[in-house]
Amino acid sequence: MEGFLLTNIIKTKSFWLATAMTLFCSVAGIFLAKLPYVNLIGALVIALLLGIALQITPQSVQAEAKAGMGFISNKFLRLGIILLGFRLNLTKLADAGVKTILVAALAVSGTIVLTYWLSRKFGAEDELAILSACGCGVCGAAAVMGVSPQIETSDEDRKRENEVLAVAVVCVMGTVFTLLEIVLKPLLGLTDTQYGVVAGGSLHEIAHAVAAGSAFGEVSLDSALIMKLSRVLLLAPVALIVGYWYQKRLVTESEAEHTRAPKKLPIPWFLGGFILTSIIGTFLPMSARTLDFLVQAAYVFLGMAMAALGISVNFKVIFKRGGSVFGAAAVSSTCLLVFMIIMSKIFF
Hints:
Elements: H1 2-10, H2 13-32, H3 43-53, H4 59-84, H5 90-96, H6 98-121, H7 126-137, H8 141-147, H9 156-188, H10 192-202, H11 206-214, H12 218-232, H13 235-256, H14 269-283, H15 288-310, H16 315-347
């Protein structure tokens, strides 16, 4: 039945209109992200901003494309995350040693817990708090979008607002801390390896880690990528844990209301695909050109999903509800940076 519905959607004018609009944003984002200084923002966030710019198109065009936008923001997102797995070289992570994985796990879990707790304390709603926490803790916009399907809600418009706001949080915090860490490197006396570990372990987007790491040469860039990809590896377990946690809460609330309506845990099968493509990319003989093509395809699909999300942004909502999560993210990002500096000094 689902396959039949997908086939019908793909055949509609709405789908092709939405595809053309979001594909333009995605490809433009990839090319713009190669420019100096603009690369601090990253291709996905640029695609989101270009999607927001699509709001200047006539309302009739937006209404026509709406169904296709929903399809792209859902299905293309999952496809992009699956293809992104080709970027994750498991052998390099293993060669980096257990300490890299352990430090990444501590950084991710601690940041998620702290950001979520502070966001709730500052008055943010639950869904927004956990999305922002996962974005800050794991890998920025991709983590926000990867965890979002695990959160069940009856208000899809509200959910999209939360996704956009969480992405905005990781974009702003990541950009600010990228510039800050480049300035701090010589002041703290970090070696190139230590600096790379700090950048990869504390910055939110892969683009942020690449921009900061490359500022001081290949050694720091390699260290930044290995540490950052160690955090990306944790996206699958984080999404599973969040899904399980939310499901337990739904059951508890249901029992409290005497409805006792059991629900199945939403299993993120696309994250299984992410792990599978990581294994394929690591152990099957594939040329560097092929792997690069697959990773670029991942960013095209993810960029299309981000653009589809951007066209639904409600700025009034963002300005009204953004303060709490921005404050929480600023505090937790500072704590994460301090933690990674200490870890780099002790273990690297």
